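Try it yourself: sequence plus zinc ion, in.
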Amino acid sequence: MKSEDLAIADYFKPIPLQYLCAMRCSSGKIQYDSQQLAEDALIDQHIYKGFAEHQGPQNVYECRDCGYWHMTSKNAERLPRLQEMIDSGEMRKKQQASQWERRF
Ligand SMILES: [Zn+2]
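Structure, out:
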């Protein structure tokens, strides 16, 4: 790989895919290509934003309008992966670790 190619790759890397294809859905929500990606993003939000368990997005769903996956926040059954992380204390640990990292 030439050095210019590397520079170009670096230039494009910071733009998450979901922003490049955002707003194609009438819901105006961020679109995720798969359930897995949507779940990962939901869990990341809980970690980095330090949500209490009832705050923030609770689950993901496949959209009938656009066919992509979105997060849903209200009155949704909690994502089992998220619930497990909360119950095991893993979520609290990761939230604390993320707060710690942001002090530097
Ligand atoms: Zn949609």
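One thing you can check immediately is this: The first strand starts at residue 59 and ends at 62.
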